[in-house]
Amino acid sequence: MDNELAALGILFTEFYYWLTVVLMFFIHIGFCMYEVGVSRHKNHMHTLMKNTMLIPLVTITFFFFGWWIYFAFPNGPGFIGGLESAPWATPWSELMGPHMGGAPVTDTLTAEDTAGWARINGVFWAAFLLFSWTAASIVSGAVIERIKSTAFWLLAVGIGSVWWIIDASWGWHSAGWMVQKLGYHDAYASGVIHAIAGGYALGILFVLGPRIGKFAPDGTPRNIHPRNPWLVAIGLFLIYTGFWGFYVACNIPMWDIQAGDGVFFSATNIYLAPTTLSAITVNFLMSLSGGLLMGYIVSKGDAFWTYSSGLAGIIAASAGNDLYHPMQALFIAAAGVIFMYKTHYWVERKFKIDDAVGAVAVHGYAGWFGVVIAGFFLWGYPSSPDTSFATVTPWGQFIGAMIMFWVLGFIPGWVTAKILHAFGMLRIPKEVELAGLDCGANAARYADELGIINAERAAIGGAAGSD
Amino acid sequence: MSTGNFENWAGTITDIGPIYPFVGSEVFMFILGLVFWIWWHVVQTKRESKTYEEEVKRFGDADALTKIINGETPEDV
Fold first, then answer.
1. Which of A59, A62, A61, A32 is nearest to A48 (CA)?
2. The complex's ipTM?
3. Which of A106, A234, A339, B50 has the smallest count of CB within 10 Å of its CB?
């Protein structure tokens, strides 16, 4: 940073990503409120802690190996090359700690590495980490009120620090093999975060089973209504708020996009292809609106589904929201909501799947739809500024959507859940489910309160006696 | 004497690399971190299993569960 212009660019980028992290924190607050609002009173504290503790667990494991995976796996490895070297992303790298960008101490790094990564590595890592929390938190909602914390937290590490970051390396890295060979385009993570997390949750749900009472003896599903609709509404509003941070974190704020001679700075998407903050801001709002409007219609004004459809609308348009016209974003969002709503109830009836908060629907089905539909709308678009990469096609996007939802989502979720189930670690005992996951804590709390009340009664008696 | 790689900010800033203390101990710290992470899961898993065992004993019979489902507070059970 030996001149003011270079310093401005680097420090602006550092601050930009820091801000996205703060905004994305709202997603997690929203998820916690949402889940607690949906859960029944007897399970509130367990539900809250289950979601909260994924934060530190995914954080430390993303530090240990998640960040390195992103940079090391763009070739598969084994599909189009081997492991990539990423010495700035290993947990023992000096660049994972405070660094002034001067000469490296370790041999594995170059002066170029330290100069380039010293001020970006931490905030970039944190932005990706917040995506990781989101992926794990999506899964959390689907499995409430009957999963063991032990199981969920291991599953959260799996999706948050392993599976989603592999898919990011494949399809959300400027040199990922899916981008190169399939022309995969998923600018705001319809598939990369949402479809995979939805698929992972569905895989777990197949093994975990429904909550007691969810299905009548003849298989008819029963609604287990949200305990606190106000908490759910505020939670979803906060998720919308945090989604702004999510969107801008998927961009690179300043990049020279001019090929050949000359210089032209623009924001880019994650593939280093041009877009503008203005474009994604309008499209975010239009897809939110398309989702809300259609959600209200298909759910006949049900508040829970209308709010969720706003989110599903954004997710359905996210793959191409760097390039869509706002009206396209609106209609794609609306269509995505119809798809996810109908699919949710079909899967629920057909396979007896109890997706407690509609997470598989909102994230999984809408995300899958978003990736696929982008293949038609963006057919023939360049997937990257690198002209040797494949262009966007419907079949490339379809294969990409299947990889996200099924290969990296459903299968790892199902296999891990099967292993946990085999060891008796997946589902809580039936008696605890009936009594409520907070039964022990509630009993202790009532006993404490009773002790206080009895002491107060005794104090009244003492006071009366002294008069 | 400094636990870091530098003792003042007076030199050329671009010569300064990592500014945290004990540079060179990163692999050791990583191993400690892994142990801490695994230890946490082991402790948590044991505690959760024990908690459920106790709760099944305390609340698991049909009478107790019926009372809870009927809305009686757990300490009444």
1. A32
2. 0.93
3. B50
